[in-house]
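ok so i was messing around last nite and threw this chain in just to see what happens. nothing serious, just curious
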Amino acid sequence: MNLLLKRLNKLTEGILFIDGLLFCGTLEDAWRDLSRQQKVPGETCIPAGAYQVIIDHSARFQKMMPHVLNVPHFEGIRIHSGNTRRDTEGCILLGRHLQECVISESRATVERFMTVLQNALNRGEEVWLTISDDGLLI
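result:
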């Protein structure tokens, strides 16, 4: 299964596609050019690139969650629910409606995402997330 997160701006709002189909909106911490700036822990989105995604147990959240693997200079990156960038700490939030850095219907969207993700993994598929900065506007 292929996931594509297209970032729309440096705030960082985006759109998630699953196998080419629009799935939901995304919200992350602020974008920084890590070739010129230092990462600010808990306030910087992960670098654009391709990352494998699995489901495993989160010690922090004490439940099974999507885990984005092998992100340079980041650890424990998850895909989860939340409503503002204060909820991200470097992770990716999912939701239905995205407006002015607030995302809504996040829990229901993450539940739907978990079902799709778990089904793909149960079929033996690898899941890859590609994050693109190509659409950055501001």
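not much to say yet. The CA atoms of residues 95 and 106 lie 4 Å apart.
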